[in-house]
Amino acid sequence: MTTTLPSGRQFAPEFLWGSATASYQIEGAAAEDGRLPSIWDTFSRTPGKVLNGDTGDVAVDHYHRVAQDIEIMKDLGLQAYRFSIAWPRIQPTGSGEVNQAGVDFYVDLADRLIEAGIKPVATLYHWDLPQTLEDEGGWTNRRTAELFADYARIMAEALGDRIHLWTTLNEPWCSAFLGYASGVHAPGVTDDEAALKAVHHLNLAHGLGARAVKEVLGEDTPISITLNTHVTRAASDAPQDVEAKRRIDTIANEVFLRPVVEGVYPPEVFADTAHITDWSFVRDGDLEIIKVPLEVLGINYYSTGRVQHGTPVTGDGEPGPDGHKTSSHTPFVGATEVEFLPQPGPHTAMDWNIEPLGLTELLLDLSKRYPELPLAITENGAAFYDTVTDDGRVHDVERTSYLHDHIEAVGQAMDQGADVRGYFVWSLLDNFEWAYGYDRRFGIVHVDYDTLVRTPKDSSRWYADLIRTRTIAPVEG
Ligand code: FCB
User: Fold this and answer.
1) 211-262: per-residue pLDDT in tens?
2) Is the peptide bond before 187 cis (omega within 30 degrees of 0)?
3) Which of 70, 93, 275, 287 could disulfide-pair with 132, CB 3.0 to 4.6 Å?
4) Is the pLDDT at 1 greater than 80, yes or no?
5) For position 35, what pLDDT does the model report?
6) Closest Cα to residue 335, out of 387, 381, 271?
7) Is residue 379 flagged as an active site residue?
8) 426 CB within 6 A, ligand 1
9) Dihedral Cα 459, 464, 465, 471, nearest 10 deg
10) What's the pLDDT tens digit per position in 341-393?
11) From the CB of 380, is ligand 1 less than 6 Å away?
12) Is residue 361 among the annotated active site residues?
């Protein structure tokens, strides 16, 4: 793939440039210093769930290589680093006593980042729920949301003012629907009602967690949530296809956006899912809790989708046209008559189509709906099957082109009025890509999974240049 959008744009000095990772995907040290299993430890050990039987036991051993990894970030000139905290390191069974060694790890990480001049951006939940909580129903159990607030409070007390931006949850859509409906993510449940309960309890956890952090650190503490708002288009103007798109928008985006930003559920969702649940798990007062003023809304963007009236595509683990692994159950609960269509290329190694202007469209749409709500791209990036060549380098020109075009797409949205505050590349390091294990590489830094040696890819040098000059350089090669 080559670039499709112009080079040369310059960004303002206050625009924040960073990179993102997540605890289970990079840390390893799965059974060290008091950490107990999360749902991903259990899931990855279940035969057939993760490609090649890969697990996060070692991952890229970031837990023991923090110093080296921060040196890499420093060399790249990163201004911010978005990481996640592993709840099972902090409270190994999800409640009760605090595991001081786990807390110390993140305090030390934040201190080292600050020392290196890098702003810590902390996500409290990037999918590694303590297994003990899952044994009691996980996100289908309201108590998990209440316990999340206790955990958030512990971290606010420990990290204090070190954190530039707190993020409660990463992509609750994946936790709820890939976790409990299609079951291609941990905990691997396929139960539509469970998924809808999980939606609400995740939203509630966001509200309770954000409020706990603010209680400890003050009302002005910057809070965010990261959503993977889907950009979906109808295959035609036919009313049935338009309705298919509406169903996806509702169950993929609106069930999170509207409660979090507006304090309401989209009324359509009750009709769409009436055959599944009466939503009596939503209690009086919950929506007021969920709506918390946000400093920014975090957006993760990778690709787009296209739908028509039809039958959901199911299958047996191969990538489906919605960009996720197929299963016997669709993740789009209530969208009973919606068929995802294959998207034209180019595609990344995830089979996700590359469409930078989908990001422009998304940012403009959100900023028109919520003009007062600043946005940040908390993840964007591309997987390819990179290799280190004889010259000792990784010539990942396709990834660089992807970044080039998507960053320009952000700029184009800003030209048209979107208030975007920052951009984080997914990911700093190659890592454990959930159900795909270590097969597909997202890093701007290559990791040899045998030796754990880190090799910055060409894309990281291009990105470092962008941060230094604030200008989108053409992609060579
Ligand atoms: C997002 C996840 C992140 C990573 C990227 C590729 O859905 O938040 O952990 O796996 O996709």
Assistant:
1) 999 999 999 999 999 999 999 999 999 999 999 999 999 999 999 999 999 9
2) yes
3) 93
4) no
5) 98
6) 271
7) yes
8) yes
9) 100
10) 999 999 999 999 999 999 999 999 999 999 999 999 999 999 999 999 999 99
11) no
12) no
User: 16-301+346-469 — its CATH code?
Assistant: 3.20.20.80
Integer Cα distance of 199 and 206 in angstroms: 11
Cβ(379) – ligand 1 distance below 6 Å: yes
Amino acid at 197: K
CA of 9 to the centre of ligand 1 (A): 27
**Average pLDDT, whole number, for the chain?**
98
Nearest CA to ligand 1 atom 9: 22
Ligand 1 atom with minimal separation from the 25 CA: 9
The CB of 256 under 6 Å from ligand 1? The reply is no
What lies within 8 Å, CB to CB, of 420 at 6+ separation is 15, 363, 374, 375, 376, 377, 410, 413, 414
Pocket of ligand 1 contains residue 69 by CB under 6 Å: no
The rounded Cα 183 to chain-centroid distance in angstroms is 17
Q: Where are the domains of the chain?
A: 16-301+346-469
Return the structure tokens found at 300: 């993760």
pLDDT band at 463 (very low <50, low <70, confident <90, very high): very high
**Can you give the pTM of this predicted structure?**
0.98
> Which one of 254, 379, 408, 433 is the catalytic residue?
379
What is the number of the ligand 1 atom nearest to the C-alpha of 381?
6
> 62-71, pLDDT tens digit by residue?
999 999 999 9
User: Does the N-terminal peptide bond of residue 427 adopt cis geometry, omega within 30 degrees of 0?
Assistant: yes
The percent of residues in the chain predicted with pLDDT above 70, rounded, is 100
Of 426, 427, 433, which is best to mutate to test ligand 1, by the most ligand atoms within 8 angstroms of its C-beta? 426
Cβ of 228 closer than 6 Å to ligand 1, yes or no, is: yes
CB distance 195 to 269 below 8 Å? no
Collect all residues with Cβ–Cβ distance below 8 Å to 398 and sequence separation of at least 6: 1, 348, 382, 384
Ligand 1 center to residue 50 CA distance, Å? 15
The pLDDT tens digits for 382-438 are: 999 999 999 999 999 999 999 999 999 999 999 999 999 999 999 999 999 999 999
The residue whose CA has the least distance to atom 4 of ligand 1 is 433
In short, whether 39's Cβ falls inside 6 Å of ligand 1 is no
